[in-house]
Structures are given as C-alpha cells and as structure tokens.
C-alpha cells in the first residue's frame, strides 16, 4: 500500500463498525492519521487500537452526530491530537423502516437527525476548520442508492439520503472557493450489521439482492472504502458528485432482462 495520505488527517464518523470501519482502515493503510468516532468512547478506542496504521496514527473519539456540540468537540479533539483536518467522512447512519401511513414521528425525527442533520453538523464543523487552515480539503458524505429512488417502507431513510445528496451539491458549490471538495458516496447493497437486520424482514432476501444487482453479488465495505479513497486522495476535478458504489444497481432497468 502506498502512503499517499501521510501527513493528512481524517475523521470518520460511526467508524467502529461496518463501512465506516473499512474506510478508516483504508485511509490508515494509506498513511493518514485517523480519528475513529463512535457514540461509545470505549468502542471508538478499541476500533482505533485495532487499526493497523502505516505512517499515521489512530485515535478513538466519542461523538454523537445528532448533537452539534459533540460534533464540534470531535473536531477539536482531532485538532488537539493531530494539528489539522484534511478529510471528513460523514458515515454514521441508521435505518428505521415501516409503512409511511403508520410511521412514528419519533422514528422519522431520529432518522433525519442522524442521517441528514448529522451530516450537516459534521460538514459544518469540518468546513469551518478547513476554511481557517486555508488549503482546501475533502468531505465525503455517505449516502445510499435509496437517495435516488423510492422503495417501500423507507420514507425517512430515502428522504434523509436524498437530502444528503443535495446538501452535498450545495456545500460543494458554496465551499469551492476554498478548494474544499464535497462529494457523496452512495453504496448499493453492502453486507453489514445494518443489512443483516433488514435481511430478517419479509420481502428482502439475499437472492433478491443478487438478482437485482448487475454484478450479481453484494458489495463489500472495503469496496466502498476504495471509492472513498479515490475521492479523498485528490488530484481530480470532482466535486458535488454522487458516486454510486452499487454494482450497477441504479443503472439497471429492472425487468429489461425479463426478470
Ligand atoms: P452500521 O450499522 O455498521 O454502521 C453505522 C454506524 O453509525 C454504527 O457504527 C453506529 O453506531 C453509528 N451511528 C448511528 N447513530 C449514530 C449517532 N447518532 N452518532 C454517531 N454514530 C452513530 O451500518 P453500515 O452499513 O456500515 O452503514 C454506514 C453508512 O452506510 C450509513 O450511513 C448507511 O446509511 C450507509 N449505507 C449502507 C448500505 C449497506 O448496504 N450497508 C447501503 C447504502 C448506504
């Protein structure tokens, strides 16, 4: 592995598990200093200790992305340790599913708080720091294919991810003058705790996913992480973009093969 990210510092929210953890591992293996954040301090610290870094170091920081003060504290703790911030990955997310006509307002609010407001608070805190530093940066928001299309029983989740997509475009435009690139990564079906839970629901099977995805399989957290690595390494002209890491799921006109 190269060390192209040495001397750069990254924060990844919700990184004690799943896709976030794979992103942290990918950036650390490329030499970045990495702050792994989680709501539970012990989990963040364990995940940081487990990470194999090359030239960089890893720390665990407690942060709840729904709390703006907690998010500001997360950036401050990272700066105290590493002195600067170059890469922010807003990964933390939840999914609560249910029929729209019965959906609980508290569940709606929780999904919006974590998936959309959390991305805004993380971007705002990181953007402020990057503007002060004066030499650009990269923000990557973890969206979903469900931010682009409608699926049954996912009103809050799909709305939150659609919001993330347009927040990404807006921040990209607003902070372009500071050379801060803001992009989103929109995974398709990736095997993690989040999708293991969904698999137990009626109407969502492993076979559905394989048939519906042109590459014929689930993606891996590492495959999402390598796409994030591309975005944060720089040397490209990409900002305000939604990169779909979905095995062709969105490109596929379902039924066009007679399936
Ligand atoms: P995951 O459940 O393993 O990871 C989500 C992480 O977010 C967990 O570590 C959780 O503790 C953390 N989190 C939740 N609420 C938080 C809060 N208030 N503050 C801080 N952290 C919080 O699931 P995952 O699949 O790795 O999901 C990561 C991201 O990828 C999410 O944004 C999810 O919507 C997105 N995504 C996942 C898939 C998939 O198929 N797995 C597909 C598309 C998008």
Structure characterization notes:
44% of the residues lie in helices and 14% in strands. It has helices at 18-29, 41-50, 68-82, 105-133, 155-174, 193-199, 206-212, 221-233, and strands at 9-12, 33-38, 58-62, 87-90, 137-142, 180-187, 242-245. The protein has a seven-stranded parallel sheet, with helices on both faces. The chain starts with 8 loop residues before the first strand and ends in a 14-residue tail after the last strand. The model has no long low-confidence stretch (mean pLDDT 95). Residues 13-14, 16-20, 38-39, 64-66, 91-94, 114, 142, 144, 187, 189-190, 192-195 line the site of nicotinamide-adenine-dinucleotide (NAD).
Q: Which keywords apply here?
A:
alpha/beta, 14% strand, globular, 8 helices, 7 strands, binds nicotinamide-adenine-dinucleotide, seven-stranded parallel sheet, 259 residues
Estimate percent helicity: 40-55%
The SSE string, one letter per element, is EHEHEHEHEHEHHHE
- The number of helical runs is 8
- Main-sheet strand order equals 3-2-1-4-5-6-7
Average pLDDT score:
95
